[in-house]
Design brief:
Blueprint (H helix, E strand, L loop, with lengths): L6 H19 L5 E2 L25 E2 L1 H5 L3 H4 L13 H10 L29 H13 L4 E5 L9 H10 L8 E6 L9 E6 L6
Antiparallel strand pairs: 1-2, 3-5, 4-5
Length: 200
């Protein structure tokens, strides 16, 4: 299925850069590009410097070679005393704990800076249908719906999305559905091909 360029890649790049930077800022360069570095944003546009990072993000090869860095960190000054827990505490409280809250760009995404995050997947049929109609009205030809997997692979949105996409009132909107590629969420997301909007 031909999808073209959509803001989902921009959103994934934003999440990837944000998490890599948060870990690095707290003393642990856990996620990097293949060269072992955390991309540095150089706006404008907002994502200049890390466009495509989501498709290349990996665990830092230095951490794989020396797992003690997860405990000790790798951003100078690196401690040498046994039982040091400041890095682990910083990661738990600041990187994963949301202190400060995670801030992400929702506009100015992509290489050209012209993409915006269109919508989050709403948990109700009405909200879901409204999102699909809005995407079609904007001229989008496809959308990525992140359903999540749920606790044991039985998330509500994951289970309900195929039913909702087959609803009769979305017949003029949805052209087809396919499981997303692994880099876009795999079995926790679906691609939705949208029909062209009929002229009024």
């Amino acid at each position: 299925m031909e999808l073209g360029i959509f803001s989902d890649q921009g959103e994934l790049d934003e999440l990837s850069e944000n998490m890599a930077t948060r870990f690095h800022t707290n003393g642990l360069t856990l996620f990097t590009d293949p060269t072992g570095t955390v991309p540095t944003p150089t706006p404008p546009p907002a994502q200049n410097g890390y466009v495509g990072f989501a498709s290349t993000i990996q665990v830092n090869p230095a951490v794989l070679a020396d797992p003690s860095q997860v405990r000790d960190g790798d951003v100078p000054p690196v401690p040498t005393q046994a039982g040091y827990t400041a890095i682990i505490n910083a990661v738990l409280n600041n990187t994963l704990g949301g202190n400060p809250p995670l801030a992400a760009n929702v506009t100015g995404l992509g290489a050209s800076g012209t993409l915006s995050a269109p919508f989050n997947s709403p948990p109700t049929l009405v909200g879901f249908a409204s999102s699909m109609l809005a995407a079609q009205a904007e001229g989008r030809r496809a959308a990525v719906v992140v359903t999540g997997r749920g606790v044991q692979g039985d998330g509500v949105l994951r289970r309900r999305a195929p039913e909702w996409l087959a609803e009769p009132h979305l017949r003029d909107v949805v052209a087809g559905v396919a499981e997303a590629h692994r880099r876009h969420g795999g079995d926790g997301a679906v691609y939705v091909a949208l029909k062209r909007r009929k002229p009024a």
